[in-house]
Amino acid sequence: MLKIDSVSVRRGQLLTLNNVSLSLAPGRTVAVVGESGAGKSTLIAAVLGLVALQRGSITWNGGPVRNCRPALVMQEPRAAFNPVLSLRRSVLEPVVATGATVVPDTLDNLCKRLELRPDLLDRRPGQVSIGQAQRAGILRALIIESPLILFDEPLSALDAVTQKHTARLIADLQTERGFAALIVTHDLGYAAAYADEIAVLQAGCIEEVTAAHRFVSQPSTEYGCTLLNAAIALGALQA
């Protein structure tokens, strides 16, 4: 289980996370929502150990998060890869870093599951579509069989049709593999449809953590209501 316990992060004079606490069990999804600058990306960086904690702790099953080899699916698919390397080399980098090997059938089966032609992996990031690059990013996250996958706005760079397909694909793969998923997103419709819980982050503080089905009918905070009403006005959710 991922446990974020009373975490605060300061960048310069700004407290970007303030006493944040969350928990996430295997097979479950928590979506963190909030406006730009709320601290969502800082939270992902903190879980990955990329920023120093001013106070608090982040653990996986009581130990360091790095022990579970957390995986990340980044917001901009093409920018997630080295532009001069083939997708195949980048996808396999996490495996090579651990000294392990990948059975070819395993890679081929994952490509099939992701509807990604294996030969596309021999191309560079700029030679594939954004949707294909995003699926390659998901492939890289899955190849090490991590029990914890972090998703930073995984749908924002995709068109509406590809968004729907990718969201369903992530959910299906989670059901099959049982990994814990922490998703940060502006898309409240996506969060409501696929998350077990929605955590509302404002100015670095957790305002509420509510079951997704309950949040879309009755947020427990004024700011949650503001986000919900905005999503309804934009057509992301139905009233």
Protein described:
The chain has 239 residues and is α/β, with parallel strands linked by helices. It has a domain at 71-145. The protein is built from 8 helices and 10 strands. The protein has helices at 40-47, 87-98, 104-113, 130-143, 160-177, 188-194, 212-215, 222-233, and strands at residues 2-11, 14-24, 29-33, 55-60, 63-64, 71-73, 148-152, 180-185, 197-202, 205-211. It has a 6-stranded mixed sheet with strand order 6-7-8-3-9-10, sandwiched between helices. A 4-stranded antiparallel sheet has the order 2-1-4-5, with helices on one face. Helix 2 (87-98) runs parallel beside helix 4 (130-143).
Shape, please? Answer: globular
Written as H for each helix and E for each strand, in order along the chain, the element string is EEEHEEEHHHEHEHEEHH
**Helix-strand makeup class:** alpha/beta
Instruction: List how many beta strands DSSP finds.
Output: 10
Strand order of the largest sheet: 6-7-8-3-9-10
Rounded to the nearest angstrom, the radius of gyration is 18 Å
Tally the helices. 8
Strand content: 25-35%
Question: Residue-averaged pLDDT, rounded?
Answer: 91
Main beta-sheet strand count, sense and barrel state:
6 strands, mixed
Please describe the topology of this protein.
Layout: E1 2-11, E2 14-24, E3 29-33, H1 40-47, E4 55-60, E5 63-64, E6 71-73, H2 87-98, H3 104-113, H4 130-143, E7 148-152, H5 160-177, E8 180-185, H6 188-194, E9 197-202, E10 205-211, H7 212-215, H8 222-233
Parallel strand pairs: 3-8, 3-9, 6-7, 7-8
Antiparallel strand pairs: 1-2, 1-4, 4-5, 9-10
Helix pairs in contact: 2-4, 3-4
